[in-house]
Amino acid sequence: MTASATPSDISVAVERQPGSRVQMRIEAPASDFEVAVSAALRRLASRVRLPGFRPGKAPGAMVERAVGWDAVRQEAVDALLPVLYGRALDEAGVQPVDDPELDIQPVDRGEPFIFTATVTVRPDVELGDYASLRVEVPSTEVTDEQVDEMIEELRRRNSELRDVERPAQAGDALRCSLVMRRGDEVLSGDEQNDRDLDIDRERLLPGLADALIGMEAGQERSFQLTLPDDFAQEELRNVAVDVHVRVGAVRERVLPPVDDSLAAFDEEHGTNLDELRADYRIRLEEVSGGKDREALEAAALERLRDHAVIELPESMVEREIDRQIADLDVRLQQMGMPVERYLEYTGSSMEKLRGESREAAVQRLKLELALDALGRAEGIEIDEAAVVREEERLAEGRKPTAEQRRRLHQRAHLDLARRASADRLIEIVRGEG
């Protein structure tokens, strides 16, 4: 157990306990408690009506007689406790991850104010020989087929549509109305307005293109589809929906020829076909290089996370699950859907949702803690000017309060520190020292 004192003579004794738990014994001098009692009497005076006195003007002694010493003492303790707890955290350098368990000793006038606070803190992280971590560095080559695909996309964007009197084929466009429903609810589409819909298996929902092939002008068709598990709206993934299509016209695409005249449609990137292909290859290589870098970073982060030895406190995991559920709730509210309705749509429950969120919460926490530990081990420092710039970016033009700005500053510093740790990790896994 260690003890120390702040300039105001508060004493903090810290005892480390198993399971990432810390117990602090905090003792404030009797003078601190007397100040808190005086402040409590002033607050109570404004609430108590005493004959002959305006609210807040009655002497403290009369207020105490009116409400009783126990009420005064409780008012003082309630106000003093969070202040002393915050000062103790700063003094001891303790970073709690949950609310404290408090044990307050009885206190009276002329006595020191003593209490213990037991909290869960961030766990220790064992990185071991992290300098030897290695991952395969991806390197994806751009193929001629990928360049051809970009040329074909340019042709498709600049094609003409011509009505034909035959059943629809793959590659055609239907002038049609398409409405997708779930029960009585219209999810997308409008029966009153036609639009051009390309019959393209790569772009349409699974099974939709095949359902459209063979349709003719003037024909209507109804069928059912199951939305894919990567559908944009999470609550509709793997949900069966009803689709109704009414075709106004079948239209064939007439593509421009593959020759130098194609450059007229994309003059910014070439004056002839060879220049277009060369420019497209460079652009594809830039995209490919970016994806390779993302894949390398993902592999490196996974390697570090799995390498680190961390025993996560249960309360820390539960808080991260709470955060994930809150984020989901915000996203659902933006779509006008209460979380209860989402659970009903997906046939789930809050208990099941929390269970499904647990693994992601554990992996996220382990990665964040491992990155923080790596930053400390490597002595990474963040430029304060960069933190201020990031803080302003996060503020998004708002004028935050002092407390909001303090939190923004902490978040900005943490984000930049983890970004720097990730950059250093990539150097390590590449074997660059």
TrEMBL record:
<keyword id="KW-0143">Chaperone</keyword>
<dbReference type="GO" id="GO:0043335">
    <property type="term" value="P:protein unfolding"/>
</dbReference>
<keyword id="KW-0963">Cytoplasm</keyword>
<dbReference type="GO" id="GO:0003755">
    <property type="term" value="F:peptidyl-prolyl cis-trans isomerase activity"/>
</dbReference>
<dbReference type="InterPro" id="IPR037041">
    <property type="entry name" value="Trigger_fac_C_sf"/>
</dbReference>
<dbReference type="GO" id="GO:0005737">
    <property type="term" value="C:cytoplasm"/>
</dbReference>
<keyword id="KW-0697">Rotamase</keyword>
<keyword id="KW-0413">Isomerase</keyword>
<feature type="domain" description="Trigger factor C-terminal">
    <location>
        <begin position="273"/>
        <end position="398"/>
    </location>
</feature>
<feature type="domain" description="Trigger factor ribosome-binding bacterial">
    <location>
        <begin position="11"/>
        <end position="154"/>
    </location>
</feature>
<dbReference type="InterPro" id="IPR046357">
    <property type="entry name" value="PPIase_dom_sf"/>
</dbReference>
<keyword id="KW-0132">Cell division</keyword>
<dbReference type="GO" id="GO:0044183">
    <property type="term" value="F:protein folding chaperone"/>
</dbReference>
<dbReference type="Pfam" id="PF05697">
    <property type="entry name" value="Trigger_N"/>
</dbReference>
<dbReference type="GO" id="GO:0051083">
    <property type="term" value="P:'de novo' cotranslational protein folding"/>
</dbReference>
<comment type="similarity">
    <text>Belongs to the FKBP-type PPIase family. Tig subfamily.</text>
</comment>
<dbReference type="InterPro" id="IPR036611">
    <property type="entry name" value="Trigger_fac_ribosome-bd_sf"/>
</dbReference>
<keyword id="KW-0131">Cell cycle</keyword>
<dbReference type="InterPro" id="IPR027304">
    <property type="entry name" value="Trigger_fact/SurA_dom_sf"/>
</dbReference>
<dbReference type="GO" id="GO:0043022">
    <property type="term" value="F:ribosome binding"/>
</dbReference>
<comment type="function">
    <text>Involved in protein export. Acts as a chaperone by maintaining the newly synthesized protein in an open conformation. Functions as a peptidyl-prolyl cis-trans isomerase.</text>
</comment>
<dbReference type="GO" id="GO:0015031">
    <property type="term" value="P:protein transport"/>
</dbReference>
<dbReference type="InterPro" id="IPR008881">
    <property type="entry name" value="Trigger_fac_ribosome-bd_bac"/>
</dbReference>
<dbReference type="InterPro" id="IPR008880">
    <property type="entry name" value="Trigger_fac_C"/>
</dbReference>
<dbReference type="InterPro" id="IPR005215">
    <property type="entry name" value="Trig_fac"/>
</dbReference>
<dbReference type="GO" id="GO:0051301">
    <property type="term" value="P:cell division"/>
</dbReference>
<protein>
    <recommendedName>
        <fullName>Trigger factor</fullName>
        <ecNumber>5.2.1.8</ecNumber>
    </recommendedName>
</protein>
<dbReference type="Pfam" id="PF05698">
    <property type="entry name" value="Trigger_C"/>
</dbReference>
